[in-house]
Every structure is written in C-alpha cells, then in structure tokens.
Amino acid sequence: MASTRKRKRELKRLKNTASTVVDEQREVLEHAGKVLREARRQMGDYARTDVAPRFFEAYDSRVKPRVAQSVAAGRAAAYVGRNRLADDVIPAVAGTISSTLAVLEAAKDPRVRELVKKAEKKTKNYGKYAAKQVRPAKSGGPGKYILAAFGIAAVAAVAYAAWQTLRADDDLWIEDVADVDPAV
Q1: Rounded CA gap, 27 and 24, in Å?
Q2: Where are the domains of the chain?
Q3: Which of 42, 91, 117, 160 is most buried when burial is the number of CB atoms within 10 A of its CB?
Q4: CA dist., res. 156 & res. 150, Å (int)
Q5: What's the predicted TM-score (pTM) here?
Q6: pLDDT tens for residues 142-178?
Q7: What is the pLDDT of residues 58-74, one digit of tens each?
Q8: Left, alpha or beta for 134 (phi > 0: left; psi -120 to 50: alpha)?
Q9: Which keywords annotate this record (predicted)?
C-alpha cells in the first residue's frame, strides 16, 4: 500500500512532536532528580542537626533511666524469689518428703506391723459386744489411714511453703529496691 504525501507529512510531523516530547520529559526527569538529591541532602542535614540531638536527649533523659530502673527491680525480684525458693519452699518440700519416706519405712518394719496386729486384737477383744450389735464395715487396715495422714501433711506443707513464698512482704521489697542504684 502506498501512502499519500499528506500522510507522510503528518507522520513526519508526529514523529518530530514525539521526539520533542521525549526530550522535554528527559529534561523534566533530570530536573526532578536534581530536586530530589537536594531534598535528600537537606533532610540529612536536618536529621543530623535537629532530630538526632533531640532523640538522643530524650533517650538519655527518659528511656535509659526507666530501663535501668526496671532492670534493677527485675534483678531485685529475681534475687528475692531465688532466696525464698531456696530458704522456704525447698526445705519445706524436702522435709515433707523425708517425713513421708520415714513413715513408709517405719510401716515396713516388722516390729511396727506386730504392734498394729496386737492393737487390732485388743480392739477386737474389747469390742466383742459392740461388734455383735453393729457390724462394722471392713476397712483396708491402718495403712490407708497412715497414708491419708501423710497425704494431708504433705498437702499442708506444700500449701504452707507456697503461702510463705507468695505472701506480700512489703518491707522486704522496699529495702531491696532502695539499695539498687537507678543509674545502672
């Protein structure tokens, strides 16, 4: 297909206009790049001269002392908790466990078993008349009562140790926090 001269002129004119627009866009983009570089430089100067000093001043005067105070309080609380655990809870639990083990060992002793059997025989002899009147339910023996007593003692000892550990002791906390230097 052959184009007419008029179309060729219009295409040439359009091509020149497009080239001119592209050149103008390049100039605009170069100018925008220069403006952005200058703005970046100005923002860097502003951040160095105005923002950074304010930030570091606020950090040194507000954040740093609070963090140091919180760390000191945390250390004091950990120290008190560790001492309470070592001085109150562990000895109480160990005492309860050792008492329970001692009773269990005593229950295994043949002399203790012999005494329990004698006590049962005596109670049977004394209570023949009462046994005829009311039939008692069979029990598993004194072992379950002994174990129940030790279980109750163990629960009481653990509850007491927990209470001693968790109770509010305001004087102790005040003294520990007062001894800590907040500038640390």
Answers
A1: 5
A2: 5-179
A3: 160
A4: 10
A5: 0.34
A6: 778 888 888 888 888 888 887 777 776 555 545 444 5
A7: 888 888 888 888 888 88
A8: beta
A9: Membrane, Transmembrane, Transmembrane helix
